[in-house]
């Protein structure tokens, strides 16, 4: 989207240059570039055309004589609108125009030219222009062009993420600038004239939550004033007439799409917001006819649709130079509905682009009044009626923000005053409540839904560049990391790859019809799926893996062995799972197998052997499958049991599932999360050395021989896990002597290591902690200090 630098300055007072502003916006997440640099030229002056003659060697060129009041210049010009007596911009020899285009003395069709008479496009003032720029006849000659044109604008271009639809306007970006620079945003003052009555608007569909309609009579459609036309052209929109241009201007200003109808072209003054009828047709403003369906929303009169809601108006109800009565629309449509309609019709517009990202409840009303004000000012007329139909009432988003949570999540301290200041400049209402703040999010920020979103806003505006760098430490030691997933995933991948499997990557979505083939039930349905193939979250890896297998087999593959590691979604929640399918020949055609050249096919027993090969340990037992999934052949399935619980199933798919294939299909699915505890990761983390010394103590205890040593160790470790100063222990002696210890007794000697990372321990602190350990051993296990 293109933005006018000067237009932004109308909302917020700042002194940054366009280049500096571009850097500031980019730093807060709005990627910005300067595409037009204002007076981006040198040595362009005003000059008067003294005479115009036909070029002696070219029919379409003219030979013009110009003066700057002191010197005369002979210039060859190809513009049709150049004429004697005009004041025009003259780029003299040596002038540099946008694009580093330098004007040089040259011969054009045999005639020497001492410069160039410029158009607005050549000066970088507009993207396109017809003919040269003709200045006011009272303009002084011989002065720099920038002195005549005044405050020449720069144009910036921004790219936003899909969740920041509020930045698709000058007002939205001005709010961001104000928040970063701590400046207040000032809106244009609007009047809200009273109308005699409410107009006749009916909203039949819940996909339109609010519809504001204003009927204005006695208007005069005409070309827009220069300031309005220029504002649109800078932002890449072609001016049409004052009424249409005002709707586009307000959209660029506030982000709210508007549409104006010529109400006299409708069957009556009744406006209806409804679902389209199946195969209903409309010719849009682009001159093309579109066939609609019942999922689409239209604006209609009592006979036919007059606009595709949120996307484009109809051709026959458009504003023209005879229009005297205007119906002005400002509405809020469901983003998913507009996105779906735009995609189905392959039709997009500036309006649909904004509606798809969501528009503001509050701004929809402000924008309506702003447009009414401008129409009454520039096109005349009177406000005849106004209606505001609401299918729902807007519910404000309230979020509790914990002040201490901000610093904890960001990893550095942010002053409470800075936090509240940033949020207030972003338009968020704050109500302090002790250690927390009740934050009311403005309607235009539909991307802020949780506490973490508020914290992200604080970090963004405070500046990622202000996050303090963490000093690199070199006094570190390796300690074990209890994270198991990297290890178990790597182990499964390695074993399956080594057995000739290829890894598949699929979306986490499925089609309901596809699940029915495998007798699978879904638990989570997508509210607004991209397509029918992605309407539910998959409850198993099988449907997508089977689709991969079927596709490869259909391409002539004689052997297919695939596995996938991904998430499945069942009634019990989200789980990480490994799945694999096998079909066809065990060996590839070019592999060398037994001498008799027999190439077996994957079957239940071969598949079972692979499952046994990849099991993590002997604790996993292959057993009868007492509760098989519905897609398995009842006589060719088994389960994997771990610690008494089933963690995997495998077997041959029943013939009705794999009917499209010639042979059997083997499948297994392994619940990784239920077995991950058997792995101990070798991954490492860093822990810094303490500068304080450790203290060693040796103790000997006596216990019954019948007591498992593991229970003594468990008690010692429970003390260590409590976070106290006991950091390590080691067993260095085991002693048995019935005469000295007593019958059935045994002695264990331990070396205990105590340490505090923040200070040097005293003897009293160590002795007290050691006594707690001895008391726990005696109280729980009757293990006593040896005397």
TrEMBL record:
Q: Which domain of life is it from?
A: Bacteria
Could you tell me what reaction this enzyme catalyses?
tRNA(Phe) + L-phenylalanine + ATP = L-phenylalanyl-tRNA(Phe) + AMP + diphosphate + H(+)
Q: Is Transmembrane helix included in the keywords of this UniProt record?
A: no
Q: Gene that codes for this?
A: pheT
**Entry's Gene Ontology BP terms:** phenylalanyl-tRNA aminoacylation
Q: What class of enzyme is it?
A: ligase
The residues listed in the UniProt record as binding Mg(2+), with positions renumbered to this chain, are 447, 453, 456-457
B5 domain ranges (all copies): 394-469
Cofactor annotation comment: Binds 2 magnesium ions per tetramer.
Q: Which family does it belong to?
A: Belongs to the phenylalanyl-tRNA synthetase beta subunit family. Type 1 subfamily.
Entry GO CC: phenylalanine-tRNA ligase complex
- The chain positions of domain FDX-ACB read 690-786
Q: Which GO terms describe its molecular function?
A: ATP binding; magnesium ion binding; phenylalanine-tRNA ligase activity; tRNA binding
Which CDD domains does this UniProt record tie to the protein?
PheRS_beta_core, tRNA_bind_bactPheRS
Q: How does it assemble?
A: Tetramer of two alpha and two beta subunits.
Q: What is its EC number?
A: 6.1.1.20
Q: Which residues form the TRNA-binding domain?
A: 38-146
Read off the SMART domains from this record. B3_4, B5, FDX-ACB
What protein am I looking at?
Phenylalanine--tRNA ligase beta subunit
Look up the record and name the cofactor or cofactors this protein needs: Mg(2+)
Location of this chain's protein in the cell: Cytoplasm
Keyword annotations for this protein? Aminoacyl-tRNA synthetase, ATP-binding, Cytoplasm, Ligase, Magnesium, Metal-binding, Nucleotide-binding, Protein biosynthesis, RNA-binding, tRNA-binding
